[in-house]
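Box S2. Input/output pair 1.
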Amino acid sequence: MVELAQDELKNLGKVWLSIFVSFSYSYVIGKITQKGFTRLVAILPVISLFLILPLNLTSIHFCGLTAFFISWLANFKLLLFAFGKPPLCFNPPISFPLFLLVACLPIKIQHHPPPKNSPNQENNQNPDQKSQKNSYPHNKNSQLQQNNQNPDQKPQNKSHPSPQKSLWNYLIKFILLSLIIKIYDYSDQIHPKILWLIYFFHIYFALEIVLAILAKSANFFLGLELEPQFNEPLLSTSLQDFWGKRWNLMVTSILRPTVYLPTLDLFNKIVGRKTASLLAIIATFIVSAIMHELIFYYIGREFPTFEVTWFFLLHGFCLCVEISIKKYGRERKWWVPPRWLSGFATASFVIVTGFWLFLPPLLKAGLDSRGLGEYAVAGAFVKRVLDL
């Protein structure tokens, strides 16, 4: 088993070496080509390669994370890069180390809108200071001009801030994750449905901890303030709140400029803003479903059953219904349920539909047995290294 782990680590090294070389090539392409079709054609080989690389890995953790970081997020970032859009394309261009980190990792640099100045203050500023305001920051004391760099992205709702979480927050979740892994020793004595619920918390805690470690590492090396990838999804009060402001915010931020906004612009002139926004939501969930099916295929190497697709289509449709009802209700001043009630309803819907459509494909791919086996192999490998 330990020998297999060593072989997998070698494959992981080869895969990520290919990734670094590919991003180096993409960075050079950005220097020598204009944004648009020419740059897109030049980086299409990289995008194609990133769709193949996870097939060289068999570990659920290594393969799943590489597929998520590279086959999904990095490819979408490269598509935006081809057309001169953030997070990889700025004016002036970002440095190569920063380009590499933002491209490889699921991180998003935190935006700090500047205080509004009067026209006289703006005109009296030193020209060098004005130009500096439009540059990309290279330390945590610099400010990002969100309105100048990404006009498509709306400011975050003040009622749902994304504060930097304390170390205690992550420490508690790490302890809970450790307890969950220990509970699996008694899985034969636990009701299957209770075990499925534990799987949900396992996925959430593991994802948040891994992404937080990567974000903190980038923060340490470059001194940049990064936005948290999760915003306590267990406190969601609606599907709109869950998907848009709390769950896996990196995916939300990458799907907005790549899928939602282009679809909205496409249908806005045809069917009007209201209907176009609903169609854009459905399109976003369809793309998310396709990418999840792809990741599940990488993990299980089995033909998809499309249960995950139905999960996201159902949530996309229900989200559209929810938005329409809330808008209709606000206009007529309908009764608004308390947060505890709407939160309970949201959590129940997510868990029930997850039990029905999302979790079965993961279990079929061996999330439980293979995942626990990998924890055991990792423990044996670490013990062997420490004994040397």
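Box S3. Input/output pair 2.
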Amino acid sequence: MKLTRRHFTTLLGAAALAPLAHADEIEPPMEGVEYKKVPRPHPKAKHVTVFFFYGCPHCYHLEPSIDAWLQRKPADVTFERYPAVIDSPAWIFFARAFFTAKNLGVLEQSHKALFDALHRDRLKLFSVEKLAAWYSQFGVDPKDFDTMFKSFKVDTQVKEARKLTQDFGIDGVPAIVVNGQWLTDVVMNGSRTRLWQTVDWLLANK
């Protein structure tokens, strides 16, 4: 790689200021390139939402970097994972699984485990019965799981998730929405490292 004056200056600055590095010191991301305004914003200050689908391998592989970012996120920033919902039976099925686990109080312990079960262990949890049996390891009675999975409450939550997916213009996952207004993802940024730099910059500047 050719070392231009800009690169040289950047390297000197990084060496001198590394201990003080924060979102303001990265190369600012460009709107329309590394992030974009969502079609129908839902403004929410200091908020990060990761949209995902349990069947998505890219979402699975993003999880470690999410966990790393959570270790250093500002205390005043709220974070949530949210299932993207499109008109696909599989996406709707696993969105129902997410909200069922959340409503039954086992989402925190089951979220990564379900990703592992589907992608690492290759378990075919593609029916309510199999999914209910799998969730029993977290102390959930299969009958309670089945009832919640088919409940009006979960119906409503899935409809809300579908609307939010549409309002934010999400057509692929994983996708990250910052402050309910700005959409970014790995593809737009070229790497996971740059993705989280963009997230930090948006939180600090938008």
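Caption for Box S3: The chain has a mean pLDDT of 91. The chain has nine helices and five strands.
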